[in-house]
Amino acid sequence: xxxxxxxxxxxxxxxxxxxxxxxxxxxxxxxxxxxxxxxxxxxxxxxxxxxxxxxxxxxxxxxxxxxxxxxxxxxxxxxxxxxxxxxxxxxxxxxxxxxxxxxxxxxxxxxxxxxxxxxxxxxxxxxxxxxxxxxxxxxxxxxxxxxxxxxxxxxxxxxxxxxxxxxxxxxxxxxxxxxxxxxxxxxxxxxxxxxxxxxxxxxxxxxxxxxxxxxxxxxxxxxxxxxxxxxxxxxxx
Length: 237
Known about the structure:
The chain is α+β, with helices and mostly antiparallel strands. It contains 9 helices and 12 strands. It has 2 domains: 9-148, Jelly Rolls (Sandwich), CATH 2.60.120; 152-231, Winged helix-like DNA-binding domain superfamily/Winged helix DNA-binding domain (Arc Repressor Mutant, subunit A), CATH 1.10.10.10. The strands form 3 sheets. It has a 4-stranded antiparallel beta sheet. A 4-stranded antiparallel beta sheet has the order 2-7-4-5. It has a 4-stranded antiparallel beta sheet with strand order 9-10-12-11. β9 (170-173) and β10 form a beta hairpin. The termini are far apart.
C-alpha cells in the first residue's frame, strides 16, 4: 500500500495478489470478520507451531519468519511485506505455522480468523489455484535459497541473501537496486548464518569497492554484476 493511503481491511485485501481474485461478497465477508492489528518492531506475533486460530496479511511494514537453529539462535527464513500473507497454509492445513512470526518493523496487519478463510477457501477455486502456485514457487525459492547458502564462504552467503531480498523487495534505479526493507547488519548476518562483526566487515569492503551503499538501514546494490561475481566466488575489478 502507498504511504499515506488510508488503512482499511478492504484495502489490505485488495492490495494482495493472493486475495484480489475474491468475489465482492467474499472480500466483504473477510473484511467484516477480520481485525486490523498493530505490532511494534520486535514484537512476537506467534511462536513456532503455536495454534493461534488466525493468519496475518501485511498492510504496512514487514514480518520476519524465524526458526531456532541447533545452537539456539534465531534464524530468519522469510520476510513478508505489504500484501503478503503469513501463516496462511498453517491455518488451512490445521498444523499451525512451523516458524515464529515477529514484527521486523512497526507493523500493521490484518488478522483473519480460521473459520472465515476456510469458508472462502472452500468456495473459491481461483484462490486454491493461486495458493498452490505460490506454494510451489516458494518451495523452488527455498531450494534456491538453500543451494546458494550452502557455500562455505561467508561472502557468497551474504551476497546470496542480498540477491534474494532484492528479488522480492528491490527497487531499480538505472543499474542500481535498493532493497526496500530496513535491515540491520545483525539481521543480514542471521540470514547468512554469520556474525554481525563479519557482516559489518564485508559490507565495509563492498562499500569501499562501490558495490554496496548503506543509508539508514536501507541497502542499495550499486553494481549487481560485481556482487554476482562475489556470489559465484570470484571478484571483478
